[in-house]
Amino acid sequence: MIFDSSLQRCIDSYLSEARRPHDLTDSTRDGPADVKSRLMLVHRLVFLVCLRSSTHHESATNFIDGKVFGDILYENYIFDIPRLMDICVVYGHGSDLALVSKMIGNVFLQQPKYNDDVRAVVASIEKVTSQFMFPWFCSVRLLICCRRFLGLLLY
Question: 27 pLDDT exceeds 60?
Fold first, then answer.
């Protein structure tokens, strides 16, 4: 993805436009079998590209040093917080939950700068909602949700 920006754009496009589990309607689930199988194949392949991009060990003898790998991820925008959030929403359920947790955990382990980015995102959400949204929307409940998300990512 470092040397092929079109792949990065493709992944971003898919993650931002992919149907979320709560978006699926009966008509989506009951579509033609060949279309559903191809959509599921694309869905799985995008996930595997993201998973592989988060891993610095090819084998016991072929790997990139963790710090170097973390710098590559961060400096080349292989992952950023919006992309990680999209991955969590699109793939963080069902049978992929354990792999998504491992993937996100590895990204944060290899590059601690992502922790600061998440804190900044949460602070921005808190600020925007407290300034521009209805006061009741900025309740403790929203802040708890943001803090839980931060806690899950930092866990």
Answer: no
